[in-house]
């Protein structure tokens, strides 16, 4: 029988024993930080994960805020929400699509828009149908244009629906 023994350099075992707990603690703290902060209504660059009635996204030098009338989002009912953004942006269009099952794109019904204090507030309605998947994940997309520069921007809101 052939036996292979690997000997580590002197002190290497001690170094591993000393640094391993530090690496574990740092990993755990990093995980806890992301779990605690991912669902908060922090301002995200161009997307957010809806975990409450509102979500705020960063758009160039301003913000876009979506406020839903109810949370959690339900299927087979009219979903009403508002989108508020700086007045130098124009909401071109919006839609929602499934991310775990492709069901096509459903356009948003953009209704009444009000401008107040250099901000535009759009009232929007959406209807999500049921499918065979009890837990659906969705992506709501808004296309906006900065009329000062002509630059187009896209922001997304991810959410899920459940039915029994």
Q: Which structural class is indicated by helix and strand composition? A: alpha+beta
**What's the CATH architecture name?**
Sandwich
Strand fraction band? over 45%
Q: Whole-Å distance between the termini? A: 61 Å
At the fold tier of CATH, the topology name is Immunoglobulin-like
How can the largest sheet be summarized? Answer: 5 strands, mixed
The tally of strands reads 10
C-alpha Rg, in Å? 24 Å
- What percent of the residues sit in helical stretches (DSSP H or I)? 10-25%
According to CATH, what is the class?
Mainly Beta
Poorly predicted tracts of residues: 36-42
- Going by CATH, the homologous superfamily would be Immunoglobulins
The helix/strand order is: HEEEEEEEEEE
Our count of helices gives: 1
Q: What would the principal axes of the Cα set say about the shape?
A: extended
Strand order of the largest sheet: 1-10-9-5-6
The average pLDDT is 84
How many structural domains does the protein architecture include? 1
